[in-house]
Specification:
Length: 282
């Protein structure tokens, strides 16, 4: 038996064990996907333990996606760009860090709304880790305008700086509170919510009404939140557009990319999707 799992703290909410284990079982690969809750003081030992031949590697989640970087032997280019690692692979004791969030987002987007972002206008709400992964994917497709709207303007500005001067001309940053004042008229081609607003158990949706103004019939709305299935942004955006999606497909696609890194096999996406839907929505 070999192992993989997820390193984070806390881990109670994680759905990765559900769909990754379903995938291993379906493929008859003898791997057990474990929860690996880890205190900050134990992170280095935890990461080093992955060098054992028993481990294929691990996923990494909040709050360690950046902290693991100096503990690894090599970092894949995409993870360097995003500045965070969500997947570690163990190859004969050598640990390499990857980030599959950007790929997961772009795959889910192309599955749901197959069109190019070239010359399009994109509104990204949020400036944390997932916003950075989303922007890394989006910017590769040469949109003509990207607005980063965040509660804290300082964090949005820092994200723009980190992305690099190459994109200075097309990226605007605004405070979410000023969205009405600064964005003027017109709709966006893609609106992505990269904040926990609307997540089950939260009541922090005051920013959605101003965002809705920028959604038209051709706007693709992608909420990275997937629980509840119909988030407040989704139910409201449906009044303006039919191209409205939650974050479930991104979750599956980033997990499928991790599965492929560990096993070399294409993941059984449908099995993974069914396992999560069963757990979350039934
Ligand atoms: N579907 C998927 O596969 C997937 C993948 C990754 C993340 N996610 C989801 O995406 C969300 C963000 O994750 P993350 O990793 O980017 O988190 P993060 O790095 O902690 O960033 C959180 C972002 O949300 C903003 N925010 C937090 N609470 C807010 C509130 N009450 N009102 C307005 N803005 C608020 C923060 O703004 P400030 O900078 O002002 O604090 C920040 O921009 C989470 O819900 C996560 O579950 C989904």
């Amino acid at each position: 038996m070999q192992y993989t799992g997820i390193i984070g703290n806390p881990l109670g909410h994680s759905l990765s064990p559900v769909f990754q284990q379903a995938a291993f079982d379906h493929m008859e690969i003898e791997v057990s996907y474990e929860l690996l809750p880890t205190e900050p003081s134990a992170l280095e030992n935890r990461v080093n333990s992955l060098r054992s031949p028993e481990f294929l590697g691990a996923n990494v989640t909040i709050p360690y996606k950046t902290d693991v970087i100096p503990l690894l032997d090599d970092i894949d280019g995409e993870a360097v760009l995003i500045g965070a690692v969500n997947t570690i692979a163990n190859q004969n004791g050598k640990l390499t860090g990857y980030n599959t969030d950007s790929l997961g987002f772009m795959k889910s987007l192309s599955n749901e709304a197959p069109y190019s972002l070239g010359s399009k206008h994109v509104l990204v709400v949020g400036a944390g880790g997932s916003a950075r992964a989303v922007l890394t994917g989006v910017l590769k497709e040469a949109p003509s305008r990207v607005v980063i709207a965040n509660r804290s303007i300082d964090r949005a500005m820092a994200l723009k700086r980190e992305i690099g001067t190459e994109y200075d001309q097309i990226i605007d940053v605004i405070a979410l509170d000023d969205i009405d004042e600064h964005l003027g008229e017109g709709t966006f081609d893609l609106v992505v919510n990269c904040t926990p607003m609307g997540m089950k158990g939260t009541t922090n949706e005051k920013y959605f009404p101003p965002i809705l103004k920028y959604i038209g019939p051709n706007t693709v709305v992608h909420d990275l939140v997937y629980n509840p299935r119909e988030t407040p942004l989704i139910s409201n955006a449906k009044k303006y557009s039919n191209l409205v999606f939650n974050g479930l497909e991104m979750l599956i696609q980033q997990g499928a990319a991790s599965f492929k890194i560990w096993t070399g096999n294409e993941a059984p996406i449908e099995i993974m999707r069914e396992a999560v839907q069963e757990k979350l929505y039934n």
